[in-house]
Amino acid sequence: MPSRRTRADDRGSAELAIATPLLLLLVMLVVQTVLWAHAGHVAQTITHHTLAATRTVDATEADGRATAEQVADQLAGDLLTDVRVDVERTDITARVTVQAQVPSLLPGLTWPIRHQQEAPVERYVPATGGAP
């Protein structure tokens, strides 16, 4: 039969058994959120560079896609998966949408990323007449 002193020494062990997994889950959630935020910045950078390449005077959608692949290869690494870049260019505007997934530390959760930017296309307008 255990003594009274042994029972008193076991106090708090049930709380610790519950608190430890919850604390680990909280830490993993914080780390996952930081990874998701960083991945968002990477996707935003890919979008920005792709839009800049797409909206120049003589650029095409293919030029934008090539830039997107190059920047994604340099920056994304293993941080972004299933990266999809949509490039649209008209005579007036250029639009780029980047969609990707962030690998999850917590099973069963998905962490999507989506960034879209639109800007006017650069165009050359010849000067008319003389200087003002």
TrEMBL record:
InterPro entries assigned to the protein according to its UniProt record, in alphabetical order: TadE-like_dom (IPR012495)
Residue ranges constituting the TadE-like domain according to the UniProt record: 13-45
Name recorded for this polypeptide: Flp pilus assembly protein TadG
